[in-house]
């Protein structure tokens, strides 16, 4: 009886060792990462209580590393105060990142802001952990639908602060071959 127990224990140890070795080999496999990405959601801080939210799901595939205008995805933004305001959904047409800063642009596909659909907007995000910052093209070009449109991948400096506890933007830095 003792001999059988030793065989079972020895067999289990071999299976465990094989499983650990297999997991280690899998983690050593080359990983394919995106060329660039901007994801996450945050609210902007406004002392007047404005409810301003930005959400991003923008990506540049590794195969498109040399062309940031092949980025895909969407982003959304909304701005409400005292029950009034507007929101917009945007199809990404460009994404460039550098370190923890991303500039994304796109064309508004759906909005309740008059004249905004079909217009290009740009947003800049600085990923600072829980203290992220954000800027947007209409800070200098005028409200979407009423001002000038920026070209692809153009926005303003990230001058706005996100509301404490909401900053969860993640920027995957673009590393083009130069």
* Class per helix and strand makeup: alpha+beta
Q: Which descriptor suits the 3D outline?
A: globular
How would you sum up the major sheet?
9 strands, antiparallel
List the strand order in the largest sheet: 8-7-6-5-4-3-2-1-9
Contiguous uncertain segments of 5+ residues = 4-27
Number of strands: 9
Mean pLDDT: 85
Portion in beta strands: 35-45%
Helix-strand string: HEEEEEEEHEE
Describe the fold and architecture.
The chain has 178 residues and is an alpha+beta fold. Helix content is 17%, strand content 39%. The protein is built from 2 helices and 9 strands; from the N terminus they run H-E-E-E-E-E-E-E-H-E-E. The protein has a 9-stranded antiparallel β-sheet. The longest helix is centred in the first third of the chain and has 27 residues. The protein starts with a helix and ends in a 6-residue tail after the last strand. About 13% of the residues have low confidence.
